[in-house]
Design goal:
The chain has no helices and four strands. Strands 1-2 form a two-stranded antiparallel sheet. Strands 3-4 form a two-stranded antiparallel ribbon. The radius of gyration is 15 Å and the shape is globular.
Length: 66
C-alpha cells in the first residue's frame, strides 16, 4: 500500500505533435475486453471505464501555491 500518488490508477500518454486522435483502442487484459473510441480531443483529461460506451471529459482546476 502506498500514498501520495505512489501508484496512481491513471495513465498519461503523450502524442508528440499529433493533430488529432481519430481512433483510440483500449484493451483490458483481465476481461480481454477491447474498446474503441473515436475523435478523442487532444490536451484533455479523459476518464474511461471498462464497461462504458463513451469516454468522459474531466475538468482540471488550477492550483495556487501562494
Amino acid at each position: 500500500m502506498s500514498s501520495f500518488g505512489g501508484s496512481p490508477r491513471t495513465q498519461e500518454i503523450g502524442f508528440e505533435d499529433a493533430t488529432a486522435i481519430r481512433v483510440l483502442w483500449l484493451y483490458w487484459p483481465v476481461s480481454r475486453t477491447r474498446q474503441l473510441f473515436r475523435d478523442v480531443p487532444l490536451d484533455t483529461l479523459v476518464s474511461v471505464s471498462e464497461d462504458a460506451d463513451q469516454w468522459e471529459g474531466l475538468e482540471l482546476h488550477p492550483i495556487s501555491f501562494e
